[in-house]
Amino acid sequence: MKESIREQILAVRQQSPLVHSITNYVVMNNTANALLAVGASPIMAHAHSEMADMVKIVGALVINIGTLDEYWVKSMELAIGQANTLGKPWILDPVGAGATPYRDEILRQLLELKPTIIRGNASEIMALARRNVATTKGVDSTEESTAAVDAARYLQQQFGSVVCVSGAVDIIVGKDTTILLSNGHPLMAKVTGMGCTATALIGAFAAANPADPFCATVSAMALLGIAGEKAAKVSNGPGSMQVNILDQLYQLTDEAVASMVKLEESHV
Ligand SMILES: Nc1ncnc2c1ncn2[C@@H]1O[C@H](COP(=O)(O)OP(=O)(O)O)[C@@H](O)[C@H]1O
Ligand SMILES: Cc1ncsc1CCOP(=O)(O)O
Ligand SMILES: [Mg+2]
User: Fold this and answer.
1) CA 97 centroid distance within chain
2) Where does substrate bind (predicted)?
């Protein structure tokens, strides 16, 4: 797996894939900068009239419901329809799942379109699977990622998606394999849009490596976690952390990621 992570990082830098995001107002700038820092190319667009043409020219589509509304939901459906027709990977970030009935109903409809990859925090993944949802706190998790493993497995089996639950430990659930990554730093959760950034980077890795969405997800999460770890060492708080992560995403070599990754694999 470590060798595959190295190859995937190099593939993103060599190919510089174009990633289309329909994402929320809060994180547009952060995620565009993170995509550029890893060597990918961002485009954000949501006009109905250009969705089908836009998806034709991109390598992957990121759907993030953070600040959804009725117009944007239609944009999402048009873009996903085209991605599915063309066999391009699309990644769902169920921001705030469980917060309101509207959000949950839209997510139910989006799940039927079978995302290639789903990435959310534990509360969101549990709400998405409608499992053990005790509490929700908007966009932040009230649960540890380990509490959402059953929910992630359920989603994987039901919709065929690779499912990533992020948190102190990132858990990536594929058809036959589950990988746990223990990189990262608590300061990452103090920067808004860190989860959305994870999802955007997964988009870049899935675009460069469409044949292996599981490994693409592991690679993106490993890179971000290690960038967070290194950034935290030179940051004074959330403000400097936000910019230092971008520098680390830009500077980290594939060798450094392979040597620093804390990865545990289970075949279940
Ligand atoms: N306590 C923590 N320790 C280490 N890494 C963390 C921690 N909390 C979040 N992260 C990292 O921050 C990124 C965003 O994850 P998370 O905070 O779960 O997403 P969201 O912003 O959607 O709630 C992931 O790369 C995750 O590994
Ligand atoms: C605060 C907020 N409100 C709507 S979207 C959003 C950003 C959430 O970003 P993340 O899930 O990456 O923390
Ligand atoms: Mg989130």
Assistant:
1) 15
2) 44, 193
- Taking the centre of ligand 1 as the mean of its atom positions, its distance from the CA of residue 166, in whole angstroms, is 6
CATH number at residue 257: 3.40.1190.20
Number of domains in the chain: 1
- Give the integer Cα–Cα distance in Å for 98 and 223: 29
Residue 150, domain extent: 2-266
5 CB contacts (<8 Å, ≥6 apart)? 215, 218, 219, 222, 223, 254, 257, 258, 261
- The values of phi and psi at residue 143, to 5°, are -125, 160
**Consecutive 10-residue runs of the chain (268 residues): their mean pLDDT?**
95 98 97 98 98 98 98 98 98 96 96 98 94 68 88 97 97 96 97 98 97 98 98 98 98 97 85
Query: Which ligand is located closest to the Cα atom of residue 189?
Result: 1
Q: Which residue's CA is minimally distant from atom 7 of ligand 1?
A: 168
Helix (H, G, I), strand (E, B) or coil at 185: coil
